[in-house]
Amino acid sequence: MRLLPPIDTAHSAVPMLTPLSDAQLARDSSEQPTLSSQQTPYPTVTQAPLPKAQSDALTVELNALYEGVMDSLGSDDAKYIQRIYATVVYSELVARGLLAVAGRMSSRRSQIGAWLLGTSILSFSKILNNMELGHNVMHGQYDWMQHPHLNSQKFDWDIVCPVPLWQHSHNYLHHTFTNIVGRDHDVGYHLIRVTDEQPWTPEDRYNMFSTAVLAFGFEWAVAFHDIQISVDEYADSPNLHKIMQQKSRALFAKIARQVGKDYVALPAVAALTLGRRSAMSTLSGNIAANTVRNLWTWAVIFCGHFTEQAHIYTHLDADESEGDWYVRQILGSSNIKGNKWFHILTGNLSHQIEHHIFPDMPASHYASIAPQVKAICHKYDLPYNTGRFSTQLRQVIGRIHHFSKPSEQKWQAYQSVSAADTTTHSHKSTPESETAKGLSRFLPPVVRKAIAYIW
């Protein structure tokens, strides 16, 4: 199944604009207000932050930076991603070997040591596969190589989410409608309230618990994310069932392959060749590595999108220009400081600002262009949000906790809606949760939807 058209060559995420003269820039810059330099936590944007002349001039500079990098791509970039791929493959082989032989070790200490080492290497391999390899290859960053499998149409990563579903919800919806409430479904992932623009409900009191569940099972949330989005997106389409059936079948087929590999096939092979204890060490190591990868991925993604100064947009401007799009990507993203290996393990999403303005640029170039992007942001009085990992993560947790409680205005709005619902309750149909029968009533609604569309 393929939901997106093939991408043969790397290209900018947005079209080109004609440069403006200095006279035009000076004249138009006084016509509209610029973004306020006064920062408040959890800012919301209701109109284009920059005057048109400035946003157009910003576009010219960013496009020139983009073209300079893309024109320089060559053998060094190809070798880099091939080395990353080889590292993923060989580290996984070593890790799985260590996990298997851990069960055959004679002493308890050696068993624990081999298991910890194997689990650590497997976690490293899965993180690298997910972030620097899978995420970036599936963005089309290396399609220009015309490699037989390191391209956005053929590559498949080591998580339960099928590539086409992720490309639809992430490459298209998230990167096109970044941080627009109601259009970008990554704003809260339908689970967590992260802005005042989202209505408050009593379930939001459990924001912190929901976040913990999301973090530990992040690959599963990503897998079912597109199902929930598509049910609404294609609600009026006569082909709704056919589309959802295709997506659901692809999803459960991928889940079966991943679960079968990590939790059935590999432990079974270890049991048949080395015994029951090797099967247990393999199974437990796989569970631990997948959990570590989920937690790491969640932390990196949330630190890139939900810090204090990550701006949320209330709507999509019908007249949004290329420059406005660039500004929205900059304001809605946050970077994380770190060393070279830290950046690699984040898939260079520690440079989330650079990634959002240039999603199809090979991510290994983000660090080198970051100073120039930062200088351009300062030139146009745009915040360039960056900080240490601990700082950004603390801000994320603070934001999630803050929006678990309603403002007085939101509380009054909730009470009004609740009172109206009570009045009309007798005219409402039975909720889906009440109609579910058997074990299915314990499944999340989105999982029940996915199962229903299989047939």
TrEMBL record:
An annotated Gene Ontology molecular function: oxidoreductase activity, acting on paired donors, with oxidation of a pair of donors resulting in the reduction of molecular oxygen to two molecules of water
Ranges for region Disordered: 24-48, 416-437
Protein name: Linoleoyl-CoA desaturase
GO terms of biological process kind: lipid metabolic process
InterPro entries: FA_desaturase_dom, Fatty_acid_desaturase
Record's GO cellular component terms: membrane
Residue ranges of every copy of the Fatty acid desaturase domain listed in the record: 115-386
Biased composition (Polar residues): 31-47
